[in-house]
Design brief:
Layout lengths: L19 E2 H34 L3 H30 L5 E2 L2 H4 L5 H7 L21
Antiparallel strand pairs: 1-2
């Protein structure tokens, strides 16, 4: 099966056909999940270095840190599951992801997991670097 790298475009079978092999779509999803898992691990380590001395006696803090680690492991597991499925699929199985990407709010994520023809509009112009404080 073809590997998927950022910016890779599958060739439509028919002019105007935006469907692409589902294995390539799954590979993009797997790569996105891998990146999310790495960010979770990195951020958790940064937070722990900054707060562990003062908060490690707090049971809720320790549980939250353990939960963060579990989330990273679960994300990695889903990514590996998608990779394994993608390796078994026929290239004849194709999907048009336009409707799915139209539901995503982050432009960066549309570019990461959507097809090369995925359209990024003002609807998707949410800043992925903003912090929501509770």
């Amino acid at each position: 099966m073809e590997s998927c790298t950022k910016g890779m475009v599958s060739r439509p079978k028919h002019p105007g056909d935006d469907a692409e092999p589902i294995g390539i779509v799954l590979a993009r999803l797997q790569a996105e999940l891998d990146a999310i898992g790495r960010r979770v691990d990195h951020n958790q380590a940064v937070i722990a270095r900054s707060t562990w001395t003062h908060a490690s006696a707090d049971e809720d803090y320790v549980r939250a840190m353990q939960d963060g680690d579990l989330n990273a492991q679960r994300i990695a597991g889903v990514a590996e599951f998608l990779r394994a499925i993608g390796e078994t699929l026929s290239a004849d199985w194709r999907v048009d992801t336009r409707a799915a990407t139209s539901q995503i709010r982050l432009a960066e994520q549309i570019r990461s997991i959507g097809s090369a023809s995925a359209e990024v509009t003002a609807h998707h112009a949410h800043d992925s670097g903003d912090v929501d404080l509770f």
